[in-house]
């Protein structure tokens, strides 16, 4: 089976220990990842938002959290715009249809926005963390271009429609979400977290930083595909090319570079909201220079979209069709493999995102545990299951949450503000795409730059520790998958410890997960 984290989406993208004392620092930079001294408890007569989200304890304010929530939304909203076409395209590919089903596209857009609202509210009130959930680009690609075609192959010689394939895939996502929740309730997930070596955990922040950087460079058109070298720099000398599309691409890359430098200057001067200001300034330049143009009309039929949502995706899980696909034993074996693989990738993707971003921002207690990590992952698991019931691909704790955390977001109020913006995305859908990728791309590059400070905490003196950490950092961006980075890190860690006679240093979770990834890569 092909590896998850594939690079199929055009606008690709893409998530404990509960401490009693919160010792989170709230800098607007990742330079200091050391926990701050314990803050005083929130007084009983404090304002409502302060009491609900413990703003004083987290050394933050309503203004900072709102700014962080807005920043996260504009850096994350591209996911709900890209996922609908991806899901409909995967279903069409599985059955050999001529093109994506518009009904599925409409349904998935509504489902993706609603699942983002649900997941972000869970992060806000269940975990009180500043992370946002949305349909994951890597998981969406895996579902659309690996799982759905596999369902189509499994169906031969039976005939399925694209709607059936889509709804069967939702059933698999729902099952993986339930399994994710079960792992949380039984304590297995906590054992997995504790069993991952510290050096690999530390390396996750730097790896995700590079991953985010590549996403931003690609979105903004600074880095483009190349047949000879896989990726290359856009040809800036094409600014006078006779093809208008080529000129627009070059201009977009120039604007993205300018937007990134603006964010960097503002950040260096300690201007609050530097990333958000950069997004809006780059957007204004994109329209002023003609690189981005307003659509000719706003002929968005919101009623039709909700109708398709109710018809195709809402509670649209199709389990029965699996029973008609040949031998029951063979079908169950294939389905179980898909569910386990999807659950494992989802769990480690979210773990990598939450741990990497939070530890880089100093959101850890004195023992190095991410405060609220367990509840954050539980929110992620519930969001995955709930999103499948709505008709969305797997929700995940998106890496672009780092953009808001970098602005100082430290509590669930950040996630609440972002979820409110997603509500507006339902009623103002024609306006959401007006923020171009050349404006949000620089935000991801900026955050990736700041997250690279984590690399200084990696111990490179012991090669049995250094090699796994290095692979975690390198494989994530180069394979477009957080889970792949974790997989290579754990596998190499087990092999090196065994080969050097240090097998006692291998935890059973690391060995088990490494073995499962080996099987997944080979099957």
TrEMBL record:
InterPro entries: Azg-like (IPR045018), NCS2 (IPR006043). Keywords: Membrane, Transmembrane, Transmembrane helix, Transport. It comes from the Bacteria. It is found in: Endomembrane system. The chain crosses the membrane at residues 64-87, 107-127, 139-160, 166-188, 200-224, 244-266, 273-294, 413-431, 467-500. GO terms for molecular function: purine nucleobase transmembrane transporter activity. Pfam families: Xan_ur_permease. GO terms for cellular component: endomembrane system; plasma membrane. It is a multi-pass membrane protein. Belongs to the nucleobase:cation symporter-2 (NCS2) (TC 2.A.40) family. Azg-like subfamily. This is AGZA family xanthine/uracil permease-like MFS transporter. It comes from Xylanimonas ulmi. The lineage of its organism: Bacteria, Bacillati, Actinomycetota, Actinomycetes, Micrococcales.
């Amino acid at each position: 089976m092909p590896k998850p984290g594939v690079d199929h989406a055009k606008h690709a993208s893409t998530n404990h220990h509960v401490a009693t004392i919160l010792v989170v620092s709230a800098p607007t930079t990742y330079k200091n990842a050391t926990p701050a001294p314990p803050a005083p408890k929130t007084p009983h007569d404090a304002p409502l938002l302060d009491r609900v989200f413990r703003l004083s304890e987290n050394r933050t304010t309503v203004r900072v959290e709102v700014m962080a929530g807005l920043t996260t939304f504009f850096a994350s909203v591209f996911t709900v715009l890209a996922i609908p076409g991806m899901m409909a395209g995967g279903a069409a590919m599985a059955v050999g249809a001529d093109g994506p089903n518009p009904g599925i596209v409409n349904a998935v857009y509504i489902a993706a926005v609603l699942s983002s609202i649900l997941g972000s509210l869970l992060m806000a009130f269940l975990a009180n963390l500043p992370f946002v959930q949305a349909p994951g680009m890597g998981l969406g690609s895996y579902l659309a271009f690996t799982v759905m075609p596999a369902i189509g192959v499994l169906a031969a010689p039976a005939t399925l429609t694209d709607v059936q394939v889509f709804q069967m895939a939702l059933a698999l996502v729902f099952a993986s979400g339930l399994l994710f929740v079960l792992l949380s309730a039984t304590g297995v997930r906590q054992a997995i977290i504790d069993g991952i070596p510290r050096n690999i955990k530390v390396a996750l922040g730097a790896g995700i930083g590079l991953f985010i950087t590549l996403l931003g460079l690609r979105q903004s058109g600074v880095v483009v595909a190349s047949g000879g070298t896989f990726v290359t720099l856009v040809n800036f000398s094409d600014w006078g090319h006779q093809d208008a599309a080529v000129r627009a691409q070059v201009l977009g890359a120039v604007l993205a570079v300018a937007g990134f430098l603006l964010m960097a200057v503002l950040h260096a001067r300690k201007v609050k909201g530097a990333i958000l200001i950069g997004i809006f300034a780059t957007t204004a330049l994109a329209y002023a220079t003609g690189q981005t143009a307003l659509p000719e009309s706003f002929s968005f039929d919101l009623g039709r979209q909700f109708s398709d949502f109710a018809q195709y995706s809402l509670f649209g899980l199709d389990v029965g069709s699996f029973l008609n696909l040949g031998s029951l034993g063979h079908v169950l074996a294939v389905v179980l493999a898909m569910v386990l693989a999807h659950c494992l990738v989802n769990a480690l993707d979210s773990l990598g995102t939450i741990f990497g971003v939070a530890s880089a921002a100093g959101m850890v207690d004195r023992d190095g545990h991410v405060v609220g990590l367990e509840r954050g992952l539980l929110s992620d698991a519930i969001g995955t299951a709930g999103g499948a019931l709505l008709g969305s691909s797997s929700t995940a704790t998106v890496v672009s949450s780092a953009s808001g955390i970098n602005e100082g977001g430290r509590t669930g109020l950040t996630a609440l503000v972002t979820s409110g913006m997603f509500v507006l995305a339902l009623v103002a859908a024609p306006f959401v795409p007006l923020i171009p990728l050349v404006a949000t791309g620089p935000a991801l590059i900026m955050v990736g730059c700041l997250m690279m400070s984590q690399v200084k905490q990696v111990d490179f003196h012991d090669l049995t520790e250094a090699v796994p950490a290095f692979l975690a950092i390198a494989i994530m961006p180069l394979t477009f998958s957080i889970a792949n980075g974790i997989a290579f890190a754990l596998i190499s860690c087990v092999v090196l410890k065994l080969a050097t006679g240090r097998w006692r240093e291998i935890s059973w979770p690391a060995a088990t997960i490494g073995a499962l990834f080996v099987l997944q890569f080979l099957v």
